[in-house]
Design a protein that fits this description.
Helix content: 40-55%
Number of strands: 8
Largest sheet: 5 strands, parallel
Structural class: alpha/beta
Radius of gyration: 18 Å
Number of helices: 9
């Protein structure tokens, strides 16, 4: 399969450039256009026919949610990954109702976007050429809606510890890897492995907390 075509939509040209670099860095994806307004995004979708749109919510002429609604009203089922600083519950619900494949809160790092791009590609490939897909293919499309079996854990991770990590996250609401390690009684490196596994599955999201002069801290929370 050739690279999936991506349209980047953001009114901040520096942010758009960073997102473009993230996409181009991911095997199997290429950026075919960059738009800075809602109308330009709609025009570029019609002209370029991308497979996926990285769509900001805050645009100068209309919201990204309005762009999404207009696409769907016009019968366009292009994949839309919302990438925004907007955290309002109504905005998240509107994105989900519009069929967005995911909702990624800024700021984020490369790996946060990469796992969602790869998940989108997996879902797209799962149904390619299949007139009657199997349950595994359907689960790939619906992602976290289907629970992953314990056997799907990477080598070295145990179902019991995975359950403990998830329970600690749900109890605390949000944790860093170090805080999770203390709560569960495992090493920070092990906690980070479990947390990143949950991020890859789409059941945990991560945000960067900036402070001081060092690297930003990655903080994790469950999606539901």
């Amino acid at each position: 399969m050739s690279d999936l075509a991506v349209l980047v939509v953001d009114d901040d040209f520096m942010v758009a450039r960073i997102h473009t670099q993230f996409v181009e860095r991911t095997p199997g994806f290429s950026v075919v256009g960059v738009a800075s307004t809602g109308q330009a995004a709609l025009d570029d979708v019609a002209r370029l026919r991308p497979d996926l749109v990285l769509l900001d919510v805050h645009l100068p002429d209309m919201t990204g949610i309005e762009v999404l609604r207009r696409l769907r009203a016009g019968g366009d089922d292009v994949g839309v990954l919302v990438v925004t600083a907007a955290r309002e519950a109504d905005t998240v619900r509107a994105a989900a109702a519009g069929g967005a494949v995911h909702y990624l809160v800024k700021p984020f790092d490369y790996d946060d976007l990469r796992v969602r791009l790869e998940s989108f590609r997996t879902a797209l490939l799962a149904l390619k050429g299949a007139s009657a897909p199997g349950q595994d293919d359907i689960d790939a499309v619906f992602g976290a809606a289907a629970p992953a079996p314990a056997a799907s854990l990477p080598k070295g991770l145990s179902p019991e510890t995975a359950d403990a990590v998830e329970a600690a996250l749900r109890d605390a609401g949000e944790l860093s890897a170090a805080e999770c390690a203390d709560a569960v009684g495992i090493s920070r490196v092990s906690a980070r492995r479990y947390l990143e596994h949950f991020v890859a599955r789409g059941v945990v999201v991560v945000r960067l907390q900036y402070g001081g002069g060092g690297r930003p801290e990655r903080r994790f929370r469950v999606t539901t």
